[in-house]
Design a protein that fits this description.
This protein is of the alpha/beta class. The chain has 16 helices and eleven strands. The longest helix is centred in the last third of the chain and has 24 residues, at 297-320.
């Protein structure tokens, strides 16, 4: 029987392909499941996802790739079914070797995780403490700050600037004596970027003013960026033991439900993460898919072209209507709809379109992920009537 990409991924689901696992540490066990669920907002997010996943809904709420994995990744999963009864130790080594080759690093410089989420949690364990705060933009991807607070460690939130970009100067000032700086570039949810020279200058400044602080640069949306000054800081992660770069297969590779991510850094730096990362936390099928996807440059190029066209179409709609928005240097954009974002989201849901949740303090901004072109044509018609 033929299996489409959409059907295949829906059949596997996040549970079948590998569940984000939390290391079984005494403190978390002591604090209990209720505390863990409270910090994650699990029930609220489940309710939100139930609405977004209703039949016929256009889902442009979670920065997911609407196309899904490429054909090579899907074929790799089918071929790996026969190994599903085996623990995935060797497949982990194979994927690490493939990533290392693509990124031009040694295998010792790569650490796998069940999505980048597992690695982010490991970093919060490894580099924050009651006397070593996390410094994080506001708003940004909230999971690192939420988990740091759950651990009982302090978080310093630094507001984005008037253009929704990270305020690197203010972050450097706030990070003196901090344990970890989380720098999401492009930033989620604002879809703004800093050029490579700016990030390098920030890291160098941190080395002078707070040399014991680790900087974690999250490059989840790296492939989508068109800004000419943008670039990876993987070379710095190889030379500087206080720098870690994280990547994920969830975005341009279309594998959010398969849960594969990785960190790049010096061997001694990654060893600090390893204590908090579960062994064999990625399934055989996910590893097989990732190993095929990491070298599938044709699929990446197609996805980047598709996203670029949809981004231009979406930005033109809002620009013509007089709405201000962010750069959109990712697979989403942040738009100032000049009204309550929570109410706008509820109105759109009623009309069959799921958009991003509110991101305080940007309470009049809505994050809109880029779906397929047919999906965006329908969604923009809903926005037009809802905003009228």
């Amino acid at each position: 029987m033929a299996i489409s990409r959409r059907t295949f991924v829906a059949t596997l689901g996040a549970g079948g392909a590998g569940v984000l696992a939390l290391p079984a540490i005494p403190m978390i066990a002591f604090r209990g499941r209720e505390a863990l669920y409270a910090f994650q907002g699990v029930e609220d997010r489940k309710a939100d996802r139930r609405l977004a996943s209703r039949p016929g809904m256009i889902r442009i709420d979670s920065n997911e790739n609407p196309v899904g994995p490429g054909p090579r990744a899907l074929e790799a999963i089918r071929s790996a079914f026969g190994t599903a009864n085996r623990y995935p130790v060797l497949a982990e080594d194979d994927l690490v070797a493939s990533i290392a080759k693509v990124q031009g690093v040694a295998s010792d410089n790569v650490k796998l995780g069940c999505g980048s989420g597992e690695l982010l949690r490991a970093a919060m364990h490894a580099f924050t403490a009651p006397d070593r705060a996390l410094v994080s933009p506001n708003p940004t991807f909230e999971a690192p700050a939420e988990f740091t607070k759950f651990l009982g460690n302090p978080v310093t939130a630094v507001p984005v600037d008037a253009h929704l970009a990270l305020d690197l100067g203010a972050m450097a000032d706030a990070a003196r004596g901090a344990g970890l700086v989380y720098l999401c570039n492009p930033n989620n949810p604002t879809a703004t970027v800093h050029g490579k020279s700016d990030v390098v200058a920030f890291i160098e400044q941190m080395g002078r003013t707070s040399p014991q602080t680790t900087i974690l640069v999250d490059e989840a949306y790296f492939e989508y960026v068109d800004e000419p000054s943008y670039g990876t800081v993987i070379p710095l992660a190889l030379s500087n033991p206080r720098v870690i770069v994280m990547r994920t297969f969830s975005k341009v590779m279309g594998m959010a439900g398969l849960r594969v991510g990785y960190a790049i850094g010096r061997k001694e730096t990654l060893a600090k993460l390893a204590s908090w990362v579960m062994g064999s936390s990625i399934s055989q099928l996910s590893l097989a898919a990732a190993n095929a996807a990491v070298t599938d440059s044709e699929h990446v190029a197609r996805e980047v072209r598709r996203n670029r066209a949809v981004r231009a179409y979406t930005r033109k709609f809002f620009a013509d209507a007089g709405y201000e928005m962010s750069q959109g240097q990712a697979n989403f954009v942040m738009v100032d709809i000049r009204r309550d974002a929570k109410a706008f989201k509820a109105d759109c849901i009623k009309k069959g379109v799921a958009v991003g949740r509110p991101f305080p303090p940007l309470n009049t901004y809505t994050r809109i992920s880029f779906g397929t072109m047919p999906e965006m044509r329908k969604a923009l018609q809903v926005f037009k009537t809802t905003l009228a």
